[in-house]
Write a structure and sequence with these properties.
Distance between the termini: 30 Å
Number of helices: 14
Largest sheet: 4 strands, mixed
Number of domains: 1
Bound molecules: zinc ion
Helix content: 55-70%
Number of strands: 4
Oligomer: single chain
Structural class: mainly alpha
Strand content: under 5%
Length: about 325
Amino acid sequence: MRIQSAIVCGVLVSLGLTGCVSSNYHYGVLRPQRGAVPASPQIETGRPNALLDGVGWVVGIPGKILLWDRRVDNHSISPATEQAISEYLVKNDLGQTKVRLNQYDPLGEWRRLTENHHVGAGWRYTLGTLTTVGYTILPGRVFGGDHYNPFTNTINVYSDHPAIALHEGGHAKDIRSRELPGTYSAAYMLPFVALWHEEKATSDVLSYLSVEDRPEEMREAYRILYPAYGTHVAGQFNNFIPPPFDLAVTAVCVIPGHVAGRIKATQVESRETLADADPFQASPLPELSAQVASPESRISALFPNAPSAFANDLD
Ligand SMILES: [Zn+2]
């Protein structure tokens, strides 16, 4: 039975993430954004609290085991992860999107809910209210769970893994590109629709890292985002399966994700290999370089001493 379940999950993971990397990466959102860029800082970090963050780390142990990475829900975000998401948001014109790095700010989130005019008020004051109540009474600072809240337009990060932060950025870009962002976000709750959303976000990250010519970061992304997709596949079945059996389904679904992610990671060619194969393919396209030159220089000025975004490989 478990083997059969693993095969079903493996097929869904493989099908869901087929063709994940596109060479025609589009920088920026596809639609004009309503509302102004807030004056407050785009990225904020919660004040470290040894007790709170220690409890959060322990609560996050199942996630660390499932995704096999101790950076998951570790509640200590490094400059490298901050740099990765900051750079991604600049290059994709997501200036209105807030990033909270291990921060709990319910007042700020309720304010952002009222100010996010890009999403219709009908969705904001129903589903948006529910998600913000959830944020208020079940703080991610303790319970973890990196996510993007489309109703407040906020990315909440508790894991010190750049690819995870980028994945949440991918959700923001996808949703902010939709004509009906509230309806599109609400559809996430329908059975199996979430897999479409998850594929879009993961695909955007892998394509982004590909055109940015960052092979090591791509390998890191494959190793964490594929098993993460497996957890979402499991989540679709777990809507109908009571605890604790849902844990078994999650464990069974995550294994094909780990296998597929590691296989894909080994297939990512290094810069040297690409240069040997075709020196004209080893660098980003000239027009792409020109397109991103300005944001990069701004980011370098912001993080002059930051190490490579994926420097701490703990796998
Ligand atoms: Zn996601």
